[in-house]
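This week, think about what follows.
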Amino acid sequence: MKKIMPRPDGRHAKKIAVLSVASVIFASNQALAQQGLSSSGNDLVGAVTQCTTIAADAARLACFDAAAARLAAAGEVAIVSRQDVEQNQRRLFGFNVTGLNPFSGSGGSEELQSISATMTSARNLGRGEWSITLDDGSVWRKTDGVDVLFSANRQYPVTVRRAALGSYMMKVANDPPFRVRRE
């Protein structure tokens, strides 16, 4: 003979729901703390995705509600794709924007070390200086005394790489590299 448990009345069901929600919020905050994350907004997306691992529907919903509340409390949140970050790093390569870059420093993506492009124009500025425009629109100025061997009227493959002490070196085709700065 089966023993049937009585269903809790509305008042008891409400208490059970409140207790289960509170335990899920406590458990999700404990899990975040164990993973080195805080509920202050450091890994808001991680808190949301963590909820997908919860099997029980009510507990999963409570977890999503708690994570959504933390997202709302964080204010303005932006999700940026890796491709967008890489495009911006390439676009800003050569400018000193490390203090403004939200992706530099701990936990961010690696800093771009070089770019390859095509030289679309070059202008002799005199005194050994040249203004070189690349196909991505960036303009670089040659700053050292190395003589250039390229023709200003042709397009050449170019590589610009980071050098010592925040400087940059440009290599045009097979010519020797020379020091440049971004304008």
User: Anything to note?
Assistant: Residues 41 and 73 are 8 Å apart (CA to CA).
